[in-house]
Amino acid sequence: MVVDPGCSKSVQGFLDSNGYHLSGILITHHHMDHVGGIDALLSKAAKGISVYGPATGRVAQVNRPVREGDTVDVHCLVAQVIEVPGHTSDHLAYVIELKDTMKSDEVWMFPGDTLFSGGCGRLFEGTPQQMFESLQKLNQFPANTRIFCAHEYTESNLRFARAYSPDSKTIQERETEVRRIRELGESTIPTTLREERLSNLFINAKNPLEFKQIREAKDNF
Ligand SMILES: [Zn+2]
Predict the structure, then answer these.
(1) Number of folded domains in the chain?
(2) Residues 56 and 74 in one domain
(3) pLDDT single digits (tens) 118-159
(4) 3-43 residue pLDDT tens
(5) Which end of the chain is more exposed for a tag (fewer CB within 10 A), N or C?
(6) Are residues 88 and 190 in the same domain?
(7) Structural domain of residue 113, as residue ranges?
(8) Distance, CA 151 to ligand 1 centroid (Å)?
(9) Catalytic residue among 30, 31, 90, 91
């Protein structure tokens, strides 16, 4: 299964080179860089595979609309559907707790453009209050939750965080580490909730007003 295929090429290439067949698609929101690859993937997949996504009808290919509290079968795993409005009004996150099936205490989170490594998504449709509450919802999972966010924005997010909060040692240290990883051409994703609690200004905002101030500062950075 694939989450948010913005383009099909890399996904289809991965499937082909491993001899895999796509069995389902999970969509967090309707932006083109998250849905642009659906048609091409469906054209090569078995007929009638499930495409899960918001129940608002904005993604035409969604044939399994889901809402808060619904679950999605991901082979032997179960993904919880969590509504996280803010970036868009109907944005979803998917969270898989491995404890039942794989005897692991790890949690996998797919927050789309809601929570980023060192940052959060822009407020295109929602209010600061909504986004604040959405981030709080995601922050209730355990510290070892692995966060597979949808973009590699860590370096620029931390550049902003250091400028906004220049005295934070943890932000400085993480920025140095992230630069090192990016210079090697490697990805900083997935991150973890433990890491975000140490260095993500947005998830640590104390209230919607503080969140709004940080978000506005980032938008103008
Ligand atoms: Zn988006």
Answers:
(1) 2
(2) no
(3) 999 999 999 999 999 999 999 999 999 999 999 999 999 999
(4) 999 999 999 999 999 999 999 999 999 999 999 999 999 99
(5) C
(6) yes
(7) 67-221
(8) 10
(9) 31
Q: What is the mean pLDDT of the chain?
A: 96
R_g over Cα of the chain: 18
CA atoms of 23 and 164, how far apart (whole Å): 44
| pTM, 2 dp | 0.95
Q: How far is the CA of 101 from the centre of ligand 1 (A)?
A: 31
Instruction: Render pLDDT for 168-200 as a digit per residue (tens, 0 to 9).
Output: 999 999 999 999 999 999 999 999 999 999 999
Query: Do both 112 and 208 map to the same domain?
Result: yes
Active-site residue, selected from the candidate residues 30, 39, 105, 113: 113
Q: Is 33 a catalytic residue?
A: yes
**DSSP class per residue in 45-103:** SPTT-EEEEETTS-STT-SEEE-TT-EEEETTEEEEEEE--SSSTT-EEEEEEGGGTSS
Shared domain for 8 and 117, answered yes or no, is no
Residue 107 alpha carbon to ligand 1 centre in Å: 23
